Structures are given as C-alpha cells and as structure tokens.
C-alpha cells in the first residue's frame, strides 16, 4: 500500500445512525470495512480513491448505518483528549501551547471535582503559579468559562475544508 493510500485510509469519516443522528467518527479504513460488510451506506465521499487489484472506491466521508442502533447519548466523555479539544490545545490562562497540563479550577483539596466545569487545560507554569488556589485567589483570569460540551459541538471541530459537507448532518447553523 502506498503512503498516499495509507493517508487516505486515515481520513475521518462521520458515522450516522439509520435515523441520520450522528453517532461517532472513525477512520475511512474502518468505514470501508463496514461498507464491504454491508452494514453501512456511503452518503458522501472525499475526492480521493482507494484502489485494489479489482476495485476502485472513493474514500467515504459520511456513512449511515443500515440498521438503527439504540444510542441517544449526547454526552462527550471527560478525558484529557477531549479537554484538549474543548480548550483548543492551549492554556486557558495565557494561551500557551507548550507543556500542557490539566488544572482544577477549584483545587481538589478545596472540594473541587473532576468535572467539565472544573477542569481546564493550563500550561505547567500557569498551573504552578496558580498552585492550590482558585484563579480569583491567584489573581489569574480564565480566557473562557469551562463548560461541558455536547456531542454536536464536539463533531464541529472536525469540520474543515476537506469535510465541510458534514455540516449538513450536524445541525450546524452556518454554512
């Protein structure tokens, strides 16, 4: 397999339930496997093709499950990767993108919990400067309020020039 084909297979593909509600994102390689297993319909494609000795197939961008899956959670899992995505991979005190850590707005020793509303991304120097204090006590200002994202906000991060067609399936207000 060429490097170009390998890169094409790592493209992201939006997965929709049979009801057209977004379910997840997978690699195009996984989407092609689901297509050949007759589990999905391809709704949109990238411009690129994948070739085998007997087949030429456009790389899928949006797929829809043929059978409805009973999954209706709009929650986004709280983990480091998703915190980085929510906070645009930058310190919420100084905008640095270097040496990023997770900071508790209200420190754990003061009753702070591991929640979307209490965790932010901070660079190690801001985190050390703040220490075991609240931002107010440390005279530090957050760039934005820490909020729990919903799944639609989560999916919108994947919309770029290559997969702008996803907007039609994500209830995205602006085109």
Task: Provide tags for this entry.
175 residues, alpha+beta, DNA Binding (I), subunit A, 2 domains, four-stranded mixed β-sheet, two-stranded antiparallel ribbon, elongated
Characterization of the model:
By secondary structure, the chain is of the alpha+beta class. It has two domains: 3-73 and 151-169, no CATH class; 76-149, Orthogonal Bundle (DNA Binding (I), subunit A), CATH 1.10.30.50. Helices cover 21% and strands 25% of the residues. The chain is built from five helices and six strands. It has helices at residues 3-9, 28-36, 80-86, 124-130, 151-156; strands at 12-16, 22-27, 40-51, 56-65, 100-104, 119-123. The strands form two sheets. Strands 2-1-4-3 form a four-stranded mixed beta sheet, sandwiched between helices. Strand 1 (12-16) and strand 2 (22-27) form a beta hairpin. It is elongated. 18% of the residues are buried. The model has no long low-confidence stretch (mean pLDDT 88).
Task: Compose a concise summary of this entry.
With 175 residues, the protein is an alpha+beta fold. The protein has helices spanning 3-9, 28-36, 80-86, 124-130, 151-156, and strands at 12-16, 22-27, 40-51, 56-65, 100-104, 119-123.
Q: Largest beta sheet, briefly?
A: 4 strands, mixed
Give me the oligomer status: single chain
The end-to-end span amounts to 36 Å
Order of helices and strands: HEEHEEHEEHH
Coarse structural class: alpha+beta
Measured by DSSP, the beta-strand proportion falls in 15-25%
State the shape: elongated
- Indicate the percent of residues in helices: 10-25%
Instruction: Average the pLDDT over all residues and give the rounded result.
Output: 88
Q: What's the tally of helices? A: 5
Number of domains: 2
Instruction: List the strand order in the largest sheet.
Output: 2-1-4-3
**Cα radius of gyration in angstroms:** 20 Å
- Low-pLDDT parts are none
Strand element count: 6
């Amino acid at each position: 397999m060429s490097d170009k084909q390998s890169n094409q297979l790592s493209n992201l593909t939006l997965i929709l339930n049979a009801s057209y509600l977004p379910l997840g994102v997978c690699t195009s390689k996984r989407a092609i496997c689901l297509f050949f297993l007759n589990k999905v319909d391809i709704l949109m494609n990238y411009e690129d093709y994948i070739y085998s000795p007997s087949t030429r197939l456009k790389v899928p961008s949006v797929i829809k499950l043929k059978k409805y899956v009973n999954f209706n959670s709009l929650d986004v899992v709280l983990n480091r990767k998703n915190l980085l995505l929510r906070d645009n991979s930058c310190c919420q005190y100084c905008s640095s993108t270097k040496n990023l850590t997770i900071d508790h707005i209200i420190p754990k020793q003061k009753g702070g919990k591991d929640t979307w509303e209490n965790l932010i991304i901070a660079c190690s120097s801001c985190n050390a400067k703040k220490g075991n204090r609240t931002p107010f006590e440390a005279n530090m200002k957050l760039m934005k309020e820490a909020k729990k994202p919903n799944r639609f906000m989560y999916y919108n991060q994947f919309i770029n020039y290559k997969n702008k067609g996803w907007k039609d399936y994500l209830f995205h207000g602006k085109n």
